[in-house]
UniProtKB/TrEMBL annotation:
It comes from Proteiniclasticum ruminis. It catalyses: a long-chain fatty acid + ATP + CoA = a long-chain fatty acyl-CoA + AMP + diphosphate. This is Long-chain acyl-CoA synthetase. One of its GO terms (molecular function) is long-chain fatty acid-CoA ligase activity. Gene3D superfamilies: 3.30.300.30, N-terminal domain of ligase-like. Residues 40-415 form the AMP-dependent synthetase/ligase domain.
Amino acid sequence: MLRNYYETDYIHTMRDLLERSEKKYGLDYAYKELDPERNLHSYTFVQLREDVDALGTSLLERALQGKHFAIVGESSYSYVVSYMAVSMGLGVIVPLDKELSKEELHKLICKSDAEVLLYSDLLSDDVEEMRGICPEVHTFINISMYGTKKESLSILDLFQEGRSLINSGNLRYKTLPIDRNALSAILFTSGTTGVNKGVMLSHKNILTVIHSAFSMFRFSDVSFSVLPINHTYEFNLHVLGCLYGGITLCFNDSIKHVKDNLKIFQPGMSLMVPMIVESLYKNIWKEAEKNNLTKHLQYGIWFSNLIRKVGIDRRKLFFKPIAESLGGNLQTIVCGGAPLRPDIVKGFEDIGISVYNGYGITECAPLIATNCTMKNIAGSVGFVIPDNLVRIADTDEDGIGEIQVQGDNVMMGYYKDPVSTRKTFTADGWFKTGDLGYLDRKGALYITGREKNLIILANGKNVHPEELEEYILDHLAYVKEVVVYAPLSPEGHEVMIMAEAYVEDQFLIEKGVDEVKKILKEDISKLNHKLSVYKRIHDVELRECEFEKTSTKKIKRYCIEREALSHVKYHH
């Protein structure tokens, strides 16, 4: 259990956050980004405050106070300005995933009661159609700052309009009252179960996790943003966190430019999800193999670890080429979204990069626990943040039970869904995460699986599919993705455990489909011998394509379960 925390300032509203950052960091750079022509643009904390006030003033004078603002776009400075302008007492912001179809966008716009749509050039071609299918939206604003497309209302026009109003003495927006307990944002869950719920967060919910994060970490002065900005993890902890900490946040413009952008921005840290972290780690070893340097790297790690035991750290020197491929300064990766394999954490630590795995959920704004600068335990998701409480409910014989949370970061409820809200809280007011885990004697939290994913066999035995998936990935290097599940029998019982695997492309090319199927079945059979009888995988199928995922790279399990129901196969 952590007993000492870093001293941090409490902030109460988004305006407090913005004013504090402007006063404390002034002309330092808050955000950097590349335009479509890949020209670099940088914005200071002072400019951010001025642009937020200008946009907010213009929107207020258009009689938009109290409205719900949907926002769709890629990670950008203008996205941050738009989000902040709405959040400063003007209205409620509703971030939506840019990967959604027009039909899905319409559904969530309706569900959130949005009347204003803030969008980037990405959606520009669809705006006319959106006007037709979203009659409830009366105001459309293009927030792209570098686009060539001319819209009836653009963020640049609103900046100019707002500045003129402020210069003429209009201070209405700057003095808007803000209730820290009032609804600030509606965030839709990413839908791994196929259902999107609107999570209601207040200023208090959001700012609580920023305070907690900085109580547990000391960060670099430059960070790199690669995750979708509409998610709570990326926006609350990364975008707003960097604003709080005076950290320059650099936006990645495309997944295909990650390597180049790391070299341009040279960040010291980044927030990622396990799939990206694991991909980076695999690429390090692929590059070593391609250049016949695998043994050289293995020896370097062995020797480096040996001399570190006597206090000599030469990782910066030994692994300089790897560091340069990641921009040259990357020292810290904070990883959330799912538990991260301990060998990946150790692997990065061996070459001089600290990876801190944490745990959160949208309903908790999102942070619940994290490893941190003071203590990092591989395999765990760290320690409960200082601003909330965690308990493990309904534990089994191994001490595993549902993780339940109480604290100022816990949501107000689901938007217009009192039934789901009631179901997700206990009678004594604890939020039920639906995740299974346990706390060890040191107070570190471990995630063992998702309650909804738990396989309950006909014989009453419980199996955590995530445990088996990790076991397969740890032992079969050629398996890129795997999902373990149990299809239902006609009687409604989960009778046996199945697996679907997607393998590395190169392995498939070298061996061929039939040979890979044979190898996969043989290897699963060998692994089964090391498992308890009830945990054994009865059949494995080779998948032709990657699993369908959410925008934060989580596999949509309900899609696999739906496929399984449509063609159940039993093998005895």
